[in-house]
Amino acid sequence: MITISHVNKWYGPTFQALKDCTTHVGKGEVVVVCGPSGSGKSTLIKCVNALEPIQGGEIIINGTKVNDPKTDLPKLRSHVGMVFQHFELFPHLKIIDNLCLAQEKVLGRKRSEAMERARVLLERVGLKSQAQKFPGQLSGGQQQRVAIARALAMDPIAMLFDEPTSALDPEMINEVLDVMVQLAHEGMTMMVVTHEMGFARKVADRVIFMDQGEIVEDANKDDFFGKPRSDRAQQFLSKILSH
Amino acid sequence: MFANFDTHVITNNLSYLFLDGMRFTLILTALSTVTGVFLGTLLTLMRLGRWKVLAAFSAGYVNFVRSLPLVLVIFWFFFLVPWIAMWMTGGSRPIPVGAFMSAFITFTLFEAAYFAEIVRAGIQSIPKGQPSAGYALGLRYWQVMGYIVLPQAFRNVLPVLLTQIIALFQDTTLVYVLSATDFLGAADKIAKRDFRQFELYIFVAVVYFLISFAASYAVKRLQKRVAIIH
Questions:
Q1: Cα torsion at A132, A135, A140, A142 (round to 10°)?
Q2: Residue limits of the ABC transporter domain (chain A) (predicted)?
């Protein structure tokens, strides 16, 4: 579904953010990307739907090359859902309109059709009663669930999550993770940048560990948690799991 | 001093003052605002866009216009626009365009530079994640601007924008250099005809004050109503 091969990315002429990154996410697979801050994991996931350009290598989603100038990026992105660390709901639009905007403007759905889809998804994330509110009136956890529903409204073939729980208060993390777990069980293809190792243990098929722009470890979940091969991954795990 | 204040010179000429003068002023203000904000937004999108040449042109234009006195530009354009019109239509003599058209073009071009700076501040106040979220949903550049960035940007700078429009409303009095009949011009003509400068200038000042003051008050009310809940 998502193939990332030999991707290189620089910020400016000197700082290399991604170094020869190669991996893939199969259909229906859940891949968790973890690593210390500054390791390039968020950058990698932003490159997948070309929110950040890459300077070398290639990324292919469902047969379409992302970093090809001829690719219709907006069309490609409309099939790939993305959830951001800071939710990025549109604060000037009601919740229902946050869910309908792209359905109508990108997919060309009728208002009634978009509303229907939005209601179903809001119900699914447990926020049906909030449809007429503005994002600023919701808690962080609620906003992030709306953001997931907004992405799902486009009927994506895959979902990208960029640290979806990092900006949340601790008591709100689980309500978001529950929605993500449910999605994973339904067979959604997911690439998730997160520090939530509990989530990784529960639903991940594979875990990718990054450090200093490199993919250091790319292993099945059980291998990763059981016996990580690299020292750096071992150290990271011991720090993150010890409390 | 106010003992021989003649109110009749005002009440007898209300229709000329308002239906001719104030109408000219309000239409000029409204039209210049619409086209000025539109052009200013375009200048800002050029300035923040990818193309270096357009960005440089926009920055140059804004800085150039903002360093000129408005009254000079009004004067200058009044004499220049006929020549431009001649050149554009390929005619053999300058085509007079009239005080209103000339003033309208001047205010549009001049105010666009100020509006551009206001809109730019508004756009730059929007976190980068907002357009990213729009693009991630498959929206295109103009959709991201039109549905996500600009609606928020305009709300954020609405008070400054409306204050600038009030300033524009006051600045339209400068068309007196073209002898145009705006509100001040109309009053001035009556004043000179009837030798009643004192009454009319007081009246003009009061009217400008009341309209501007009411508008400022309305701005504050409106600002609360459209504010984004964060």
A1: 20
A2: 2-237
CA B122 to chain A, closest CA, distance in angstroms equals 14
pTM of the predicted protein model: 0.89
Please judge whether B138 and A134 are an interchain contact, meaning their C-beta atoms are less than 8 angstroms apart: no
Q: Which residue of B has its CA nearest to A151?
A: B137
Count of Cβ atoms closer than 10 Å to residue A76 Cβ? 18
The distance of Cα A196 from the centroid of its chain, to the nearest Å, equals 13
Alpha carbon of B191: minimum distance to chain A alpha carbons (Å): 50
Alpha-carbon dihedral of residues B89, B90, B91, B97, nearest 10 degrees?
30
Q: What are phi and psi of A165, to 5 degrees?
A: -115, 0
Best residue in B137, B150, B154 to probe A by mutation, most A CBs within 10 Å? B137
Residues A30-57 as b/e (b if ≥16 CB within 10 A, e otherwise) read bbbbbbbeebbbbbbbbbbbbbbebeeb
- For chain B, domains (ranges, CATH) are 8-225 (1.10.3720.10)
Give the tens place of pLDDT for each residue, A58-69: 999 999 999 999
User: Which regions of chain B are under pLDDT 50?
Assistant: none
Q: CA A105 to CA A153: how far, in whole Å?
A: 13
Residue B183 distance to chain A (closest CA, Å):
39
Nearest chain B alpha carbon to A49: B136
Strands of the sheet containing A190-193, edge to edge, are: A80-83, A158-162, A190-193, A30-34, A206-211, A214-220
pLDDT digits (tens, 9 = 90+) for B131-143: 999 999 999 999 9
Closest CA to B61 of B88, B80, B42: B42
